[in-house]
Write a structure and sequence with these properties.
302 residues
Length: 302
């Protein structure tokens, strides 16, 4: 076996899985709070990346340091995406909280298509170049492969986000409110928890992580398109279900499993079936464990 090639596939899978994880966290948090699959979440990822591209273009002529431009663009992108996330929740989901779940699901799909076409009309259907503003350094790993500074940043960012979110949910007041709202929304409201604020905060955090993933991956691969949110969103949803929808560690684990499966599948079998591997693996896992890798089986009440 070529260890260098194996290491590069492993590293590529971990990088891919990190981006899926940043998107899947939003899916799993929103589902955990209001039991809704936010299919417009992939478009938030895409809008964050496009916002960063616009800011980079505007600041590129100022002569600022590229790293500073990247940081400014990233901050504005995640804040803009957070605003979009809250707006979507207020317009498309809040009026349907007491409606049948199918109504909210159709609304989510409609919002996803709307945002896709909104960006398509505002930008272009072509792939656009995305400048690489993170200094690109190559490091030789012990296994003989090469890891870049961008890949290190992506992996470290995902690890940091997962730790921060876990601590936030377990040890902060808003985290306790989120857990209470997830367990019983009506009872949480009766004891004085502002569930509207909790739900809005959940959409803010989910949009924040998705936009962060969009900015990082577009800077890494060097291009962007209005359709990137749909594909990445579907795969991140698969990862969230794979790990156990509603579980933050499960979303991250499922994302890495999916990323590695795609990477090794394309590397050793064929790149023509890249998108097929994800769903085949999902079917296999859910056949064995329907609740996902870290999901808990729900006991039916009689």
């Amino acid at each position: 076996m070529d260890l260098d090639y194996f290491f590069q596939l492993f590293l590529g899978g971990m990088t891919r899985g990190s981006i899926y994880a940043l998107i899947a966290l939003g899916y799993t948090m929103v589902y955990g709070i209001i039991k809704l699959i936010n299919f417009a979440h992939g478009e938030i990822y895409m809008i964050g990346a496009f916002t960063a591209l616009i800011i980079v273009g505007a600041l590129g002529m100022t002569g600022l340091n590229p790293v500073l431009i990247f940081l400014i663009a990233g901050v504005i992108a995640v804040l803009t995406s957070a605003g979009y996330g809250v707006t979507i929740e207020r317009i498309a989901y809040k009026p349907l909280r007491n409606a049948p779940r199918l109504s909210a699901l159709i609304s989510a799909i409609g919002m996803s298509l709307f945002l896709q076409n909104y960006v398509l009309l505002a930008q272009t259907s072509n792939f656009l170049p995305f400048p690489t503003l993170i200094p690109e350094f190559k490091f030789l790993a012990n296994a003989g492969g090469i890891i870049s500074s961008t890949q290190i940043i992506i992996l470290a960012t995902t690890a940091l986000v997962m730790v921060v979110l876990t601590l936030l949910i377990k040890f902060t007041r808003i985290g306790k409110a989120m857990r209470a709202t997830s367990q019983d929304r009506q009872m949480a409201q009766l004891v004085g928890i502002g569930i509207n604020k909790v739900i809005a905060f959940t959409f803010v955090i989910g949009s924040f992580t998705a936009a962060l993933g969009g900015v990082l991956i577009c800077s890494h691969i060097g291009q962007i398109n209005f359709y990137i949110g749909f594909i990445a969103g579907i795969k991140a949803f698969v990862a969230a279900v794979l790990g156990g929808i509603g579980s933050i560690p499960g979303a991250v684990l499922g994302s890495f499993v999916l990323g590695l499966t795609e990477s090794f599948g394309t590397g050793y079998i064929s790149s023509d079936y890249e998108d097929v591997f994800a769903f085949l693996f999902l079917v296999l896992i859910l056949t064995i464990r329907p609740s996902g890798i870290l999901g808990r089986e729900k006991k039916a009440k009689v």
